[in-house]
Amino acid sequence: MRATWSAFRFRLDRMGIALSGLCALHCIVGIALVSIFGLGSVAGESLFAPAIHRAGLALAIGLAVVTLGLGALRHGQRAPLVIGTSGILLMFAGLFAPHGLIEAMLTIAGVTLVAFAHIRNLRQIG
C-alpha cells in the first residue's frame, strides 16, 4: 500500500512540475511573440487567449493544492506546503490581474515557487 501511495504522489508531483513549466513557458513565449514579432491579432487571440491562461492556471492551482496538501499530511514537512502556498497565492492573483505583463509576472513567479515546492515534496517520498 505504501509503495502504491508513494508512486501516486510521485506522479502527481511530476505532473505539477510539468504543468508549472508549461504555464511559465506559455507566458514567456506569449510575451516574446507579442513583443518581438508583433503577433497580437490572430495568433494572440487564439493561442494566448486569456481563457486558455485561466484554465491552465486554475488546473495548476488545483493540482498544487491537492498534491502539496497530501504530501504535507503524509510526510509532515511544512516547507513544501509553505513555499507552494506562496506560489499558489501569486498564481491566484494572476487569475484576476489584467491580461498582460503583470499577469505573466505573477504567474511565472507563482509557478516557479509551486514547481520548487513539488520538487521539495518529491524529496520526501520514500
How would you summarize this macromolecular structure in one to three sentences?
86% of the residues lie in helices and 0% in strands. It has 126 residues and is an all-alpha fold.
Features:
86% helix; mainly alpha; 126 residues
| Helix-strand category | mainly alpha
Strand content: under 5%
Terminal CA distance reads 12 Å
Low-confidence stretches: none
Number of strands: 0
The arrangement of helices and strands along the chain is: HHHHH
The average pLDDT score comes to 82
Number of helices: 5
Helix content: over 70%
Looking at the structure, what is the overall shape?
Answer: elongated
Gyration radius, rounded: 16 Å
Biggest sheet layout = none
What does this entry look like structurally?
- With 126 residues, this protein is mainly alpha-helical.
- The protein has helices at 2-37, 42-46, 50-75, 79-96, 101-123.
- The two termini are 12 Å apart.
Topology at a glance:
Elements: H1 2-37, H2 42-46, H3 50-75, H4 79-96, H5 101-123
Helix pairs in contact: 1-3, 1-5, 3-4, 3-5, 4-5
